[in-house]
Design goal:
The chain is mostly helical. Helices cover 77% and strands 0% of the residues. α2 packs across α3.
């Protein structure tokens, strides 16, 4: 609990922790987890939205889309997952760079 309070005091910590946690918890639960501990909502929302990229778990929408893909193309699931992960992490890193500039501009 104390760690979350300390994390919530810094814009950049909130931003990067929200991206990181989204990779394991999904972006919506991450937002609900961190929101009570910070006033840096711009960084939290930006990080959680961008954090929806990366792993398949990062956004529930990714998981639901993957399940639908498996219903129609069950034999290609592994190939899809590899391609999805590569593209998603590439976009994640591009958006991290762009959004860091937005945070600098905002603060």
């Amino acid at each position: 609990m104390q760690l979350l309070k300390q994390t919530g005091n810094n814009t950049y910590h909130v931003y990067f922790i929200s991206i990181f946690l989204s990779q394991f918890l999904s972006n919506v639960p991450t937002t609900f987890l961190l929101a009570p501990f910070t006033n840096h909502y711009y960084a939290l929302f930006l990080g959680s939205n961008i954090g929806g990229l990366g792993t398949i778990i990062a956004s529930l929408a990714n998981v639901l889309a993957f399940k639908q893909y498996l219903l129609h193309f069950s034999k290609k699931g592994g190939s899809y997952l590899i391609k999805f992960t590569i593209v998603s992490f590439a976009l994640l890193f591009i958006l991290i760079l762009a959004s860091v500039l937005l945070i600098f501009w905002k603060t």
